[in-house]
Design goal:
two-stranded antiparallel sheet, 7 helices
Length: about 170
């Protein structure tokens, strides 16, 4: 199942300053190589900024609510060196019981960029679920590129992730 989403969807607020820094210049802010990645991440690890995974989006809500929802500090859970935020204690507890079920592909790094062997930050509103797996992308245009050949892009990104970043 592939889903389309709108950046203006209610329930998720992007920190405009953080996104502005990311979008400045040529379009994608890229981290090449696995040596310098998000703080607290080992090798590529989990995409996090200031220690918060996937920009504070609740990873469970993508599956249960079909939306990128902003989590709350009061429902935080630390896993793999990053703080994950959730809209509810119930979502936090579901994640804590089986984190791999809700973990975004490639640790939350951009799925399309991964096909090119590049680590790129993500916008949680540029997402899709395919075969029960969550894929995040840098922005909506990048998600459209990824969607042009979802099976082929997944196969390539999976290979790059396993070879170069895990």
């Amino acid at each position: 199942m592939t889903d389309d989403h709108d950046r203006s969807a209610p329930g998720f607020r992007m920190d405009r300053r953080a996104f502005g820094v990311l979008a400045a210049g040529a379009g994608l802010t890229l981290v090449t190589g696995a040596a310098t990645v998000a703080a607290g991440a080992e090798r590529a690890g989990i995409f996090s900024e200031f220690g918060v995974a996937i920009r504070g989006a609740d990873p469970v809500a993508f599956f249960t609510e079909g939306a990128a929802l902003e989590g709350r500090q009061t429902n935080a859970y630390t896993w793999r060196g990053a703080k994950w935020l959730f809209v509810s204690a119930a979502n936090r507890d579901r994640f804590a019981a089986t984190p791999e079920t809700f973990l975004p592909a490639y640790g939350g790094w951009c799925a399309w960029a991964m096909t090119r062997g590049i680590l790129a930050k993500t916008d949680p509103t540029a997402w899709l679920i395919e075969d029960g797996r969550l894929y995040l992308n840098f922005d909506h245009r990048t998600r459209q590129r990824f969607q042009r050949d979802v099976p082929g892009n997944i196969a390539k990104a999976d290979e790059v992730w396993q070879t170069d970043f895990s």
